[in-house]
Design goal:
Order of helices and strands of chain B: HHH
Number of strands of chain B: 0
Number of helices of chain B: 3
Structural class of chain A: alpha/beta
Number of domains of chain B: 1
Strand content of chain A: 25-35%
Number of strands of chain A: 26
Oligomer: heterodimer
Largest sheet of chain B: none
CATH class of one domain in chain A: Alpha Beta
CATH architecture of one domain in chain A: 3-Layer(bba) Sandwich
Number of helices of chain A: 13
Distance between the termini of chain A: 48 Å
Strand content of chain B: under 5%
Chain lengths: ~550, ~60
């Protein structure tokens, strides 16, 4: 019998809420079948369930524990993650709680040798980074799910068996009141780095693991420092290794440092040794103040991915699909993009609106993204934790040069997680002769329209048609395209960008008197963009036609 | 200050290649290998003044 902890987890800043286990109808003989079952209510499982529901797909969400994450874990949301949470309609509490930031500073031998500026365009709504503890990320998503009738979130429910067949899967679920079987059309494995689903299916990840271990410790202290990422290379107290410092809400600071080679996790977490090192870090940042420990853990870096994220009726997302180095905030932020890329497809497939072959392009796009990240993050990892003498010498050579030369300073910056462009996606249609704008596969670019108004605020659910009208309003050809979108078999939200007010339109009209949206999209009158429900562009036309729209929609649903 | 000539992508590529080459050489032969590499690069550069500039930059902050 599964016995999840019923006492709130310890924390000096976060009050855990223990959710009750509720006996599901299947335990009393009800023979139900749910379209989709999401396994794991971490950030990625929660967002997947929420996005499925937003697109009209019912799901059960199984979580083995009765409360949210132990420890603050993923603490940085990228701009793309903020955009994804915004389009899911849940960003407000994140912005109210989180700490936004744009840059980092790196130090070597007591000198600032590099300043990292993360790209920020004045048209973007969100800053490049938002620091917030994973407990809050999960809490806010759980709250949004509580208001969503299409999601049945079941706490204290641990998956212990999985049998797949051509029509679906049967999950064996262990609970505080015993086991039951759950019949489902599809399974989403969002059950994290030690995924039970991955193990039950006997799947192996490909890639490599790095030897170096790191400690992350969250402390409460009054450091009086701004929100920025601090990085210290080779400090006196930890020769050859590095230290990272991030600010979190509630007066909490994340300290992250590499262990000397060969030191075990147990030795590193031994309280007195850990306390000495935390004191050394605070002395190093010039703030030797009293502090309190909240949580500490040891991790190591891997660049591992499953070769396929769709196995029978099971789709993998997040850490269940891949284990990536956290340098460049690539854990949860990569997972959010997985969830965003999978949920709309699975919603269409589960509702019978698209063939199941559509899921193959999910795997293709996201395995491709993970492999690219492994390649790129592998470089950062080899810099942060040199795997051999050759790499250690090169790292030291670069650090030495940074004290007097600029040419290799950029090697101190690991590239930060950013939205992937699915340029080679089979869902993309022709790219009709644009000069600039947003290419097929890339996410829609945001545009600032007013003090607190952006293009992304106007996006609807489902596919998104953005049509550009001239000064006289839409001409006959564009009217035909808008009509075709309204009558399409699939949900297509319509946005009409117009230089002048157009009263009485059925579409949502966005005023663009100065042509700023048109310029950012390199679009003249009669042009149109079609974006998928995850806001990645899949087709665009300088002169859109109903036939072109129908063909692009069919292709984007895996029917092309 | 040395001019930045390689792009970041090229620099990353070169970084990995030299690191791997160093790992392929026995530890006691790495100094000899690096001296030969410097000489070969100087020859390819074809400009003794630039070699002097590089020598000066490399000699700083060694401890």
């Amino acid at each position: 019998m599964h016995q999840p902890a019923t006492q709130p987890r310890p924390s000096i800043f976060y009050r855990y809420r223990v959710h009750p286990f509720r006996r599901p109808p299947e335990m009393d003989g009800a023979a139900t079948e749910v379209p989709v079952t999401v396994v794991g209510a971490g950030p990625i499982g929660l967002l997947t369930a929420l996005t499925l529901a937003r697109l009209g797909c019912r799901c059960v969400l199984l979580e083995s524990e009765l409360q949210v994450s132990q420890g603050s874990r993923a603490i940085v949301l990228t701009r793309r993650s903020q955009e994804i949470l915004h389009t899911a309609g849940v960003i407000a509490p994140f912005l109210a709680k989180g700490l936004p930031w744009t840059h980092g500073r790196s130090f070597y031998r007591g000198r600032e040798v590099y300043r990292m500026e993360m790209p920020h365009d004045p048209d973007d709504r969100f800053l490049p980074g938002l620091n917030i503890q994973q407990q809050y990320i999960e809490e806010y998503l759980v709250a949004a799910i509580a208001a969503e009738p299409l999601i049945d979130l079941r706490w204290g429910s641990k998956v212990v068996g999985l049998a797949q067949d051509a029509a679906g899967a049967t999950l064996r679920v262990d609970t505080p009141e015993g086991e039951y079987e759950l019949r489902t059309g599809w399974v989403v494995a969002a059950d994290g780095g030690r995924s039970a689903i991955r193990r039950l299916l006997g799947l192996r990840m490909e890639g490599r693991a790095y030897a170096g271990s790191f400690v992350i410790a969250d402390i409460r202290a009054d450091l009086g420092l701004p929100t920025e990422r601090l990085c210290f290379f080779d400090p006196d107290w930890n020769p050859g290794n590095n230290v990272l410092v991030h600010r979190e809400p509630d007066g909490i600071w994340r300290l992250d440092f590499r262990l000397p080679d060969g030191e075990t996790a147990e030795a590193a977490l031994e309280p007195r040794r850990l306390a000495e090192r935390i004191d050394a870090i605070l002395a190093m940042v010039g703030r030797p103040v009293p502090w309190e420990m909240d949580w500490a853990a040891v991790y190591s870096a891997s660049t591992l991915t499953l070769p396929d994220y769709v196995v029978g009726r099971t789709c993998f997302v997040g850490d269940a699909a891949h284990l990536l180095p956290i340098f460049g905030v690539r854990g949860a932020n990569t997972g959010f993009q997985d969830a965003d890329a999978l949920a709309w497809r699975l919603a269409l497939v589960a509702r019978g609106l698209a063939p199941s072959s559509l899921l193959r392009s999910y795997s293709g796009e996201r395995v491709g993204a993970a492999r690219e990240i492994c390649e790129e993050a592998g470089r950062s990892t080899r810099f942060m934790t040199p795997p051999s003498e050759g790499f250690r010498l090169m790292r030291d050579a670069v650090l030495s040069f940074t004290l007097s030369e600029a040419f290799c300073k950029d090697l101190l910056h690991w590239r930060t997680s950013r939205p992937h462009t699915y340029a080679d996606s089979p869902l993309n249609s022709e790219d009709g002769g644009f000069e600039g704008g947003v290419t097929p596969g890339a996410p829609l670019k945001d545009v600032r329209l007013g003090e607190d108004e952006h293009l992304y605020d106007h996006l609807g659910r489902g596919f998104q048609l953005i049509a550009f009208a001239g000064p006289q309003g839409p001409d006959a050809a564009l009217e035909a395209v808008l009509r075709a979108a309204a009558e399409a078999r699939l949900p297509v939200a319509r946005l009409l960008v117009s230089p002048r007010p157009l009263p009485g339109r059925a579409e949502r009209v966005v005023l663009d008197p100065e042509g700023r949206i048109a310029a950012r999209y390199a679009a003249g009158p009669g042009a149109a963009y079609l974006a998928r429900p995850d806001t990645h562009v899949c087709a665009r036309w300088r002169r859109a036609t109903p036939e072109g729209l129908h063909a692009a929609l069919a292709r984007a649903c895996g029917e092309g | 200050m040395l001019p930045k000539i390689l792009t970041n992508a090229q620099l990353e590529e070169v970084y990995d290649r030299i690191a791997e080459a160093l790992d392929a050489v026995p530890a006691e032969r790495r100094q000899l290998f690096l001296a030969k590499l410097a000489l070969a690069l100087a020859n390819l550069l074809g400009d003794p003044a630039k070699v002097a500039q590089a020598l000066e930059a490399a000699a700083r902050d060694l401890d």
